[in-house]
Amino acid sequence: MRTVWVAVCATVLVTSGIAWSTVSTISSGIERSYAIPQDAPRSSSGRNILIMGLTTRLDLHGEPLPDDVLRRMQAGESDRGGYNANTLILLHIPVSGPAIAMSVPRDNLVPLSSGGEGKIKEAYGRAKIAEEERLQAAGQHDKRTLERAGREAGRRAQVQTVATFLNQPIDHLVEISLIGFFHIAEGLGGVDVCLKNATKDPLSGADFPAGKQHLDAGQSLSFVRQRHGLPNGDLDRTKRQQAFLSAVARRLKGADVSAMQAMIDMAKQDVVLDDRFDLTEFARRVPTEVRFDTLPIEGGANIDGLDVNKVDAEKVRKKVTDLAKEPPPPPTGDGIPCID
């Protein structure tokens, strides 16, 4: 949900001739997190950025979105979604060469930083609830204070859980909630995708024919949310998220000033960055190409009534190391690749 802005917006700022002062303005207007300690381990082979996409239908302060926005999103009521990190992408930016965005399936059964095992996506929400309950027991009842502290605890837990699972240091984090997807597509006037087969899913609102097509903001959100009615369920949703990000990257290459302003506005209301993320420096060294891959699973299982992905941690870690050394080849042809 966030590779879009971080990995390509800065490129467009450069190619469109927008001044570096604009990048500084964006940076100063974005919410900052202190979830990554100053003394945390750092990557020695480039930079690792953890991109987290939350399911929540609330804004950055925990307030409900306007009813008209919820209607256009077609994503249900504001109290749905919780605080699971349903999108997890490790973006590795090497010293030279293409960057690699590695999707981590959200239902992987892993050790959580808070103790015990759970789905990797749950680290954020569990830690958030625990921190809020701790503060309430100590006498804190201000809603915004609880929300801020809870989210910071969630970010710390998600970063630690992913870093341990992948055996990789996390240099930076980027967080975006569900509304960010919608604002991205809306600001760009929609995105172009291609499907091999027609698909329909009333739960997400997806209703798409086969072939190349243009999606508006509401359709784009349905596109990235769909998992029912797909051959591989959640894994195919991951492919949709990657296709969306690729579509945004293509659209941004020809973006005009109004589209760029929309992306800037989106960043200021929907994005959280860690306190050490220097956007000006990043924009100077932004990768010219981002390739996508999905980390492996070993099949599914049902544990205590929960459907999870079984994983071989060592195999996953080897895949991460291999991809960092040699990312997958670029897509062939100049057209839009079709997905299932």
Q: If you average the pLDDT, what whole number results?
A: 84
**DSSP strand content:** 15-25%
Rg value: 19 Å
* Classification by helices and strands: alpha+beta
In sequence order, what are the helices and strands, one letter per element? HHEEHEEEEHHEHEEEEHHHEHEEEH
Tell me roughly what share of residues is in helical segments. Answer: 40-55%
Number of strands: 15
Q: Count up the helices.
A: 11
Pick out the low-confidence regions: 1-8, 10-20
Terminal CA distance: 20 Å
Q: Tell me, what's the shape?
A: globular
| Strand order in the largest sheet | 1-12-7-2-3-4-13
The biggest sheet, with number of strands, parallel, antiparallel or mixed sense and barrel status, is:
7 strands, mixed
Description:
This protein is of the alpha+beta class and 340 residues long. It has helices at 3-15, 20-29, 67-73, 122-137, 143-166, 178-187, 217-225, 234-253, 257-270, 279-284, 313-325; strands at 31-33, 46-54, 85-94, 99-103, 109-111, 117-119, 172-176, 191-195, 199-201, 206-208, 211-215, 271-274, 290-294, 300-303, 306-309. It has a seven-stranded mixed beta sheet, with helices on both faces. A two-stranded antiparallel ribbon has the order 5-6. A hairpin with a 4-residue loop joins strand 3 and strand 4. Helix 6 crosses helix 7 and helix 7 packs antiparallel against helix 8 (234-253). The two termini are 20 Å apart.
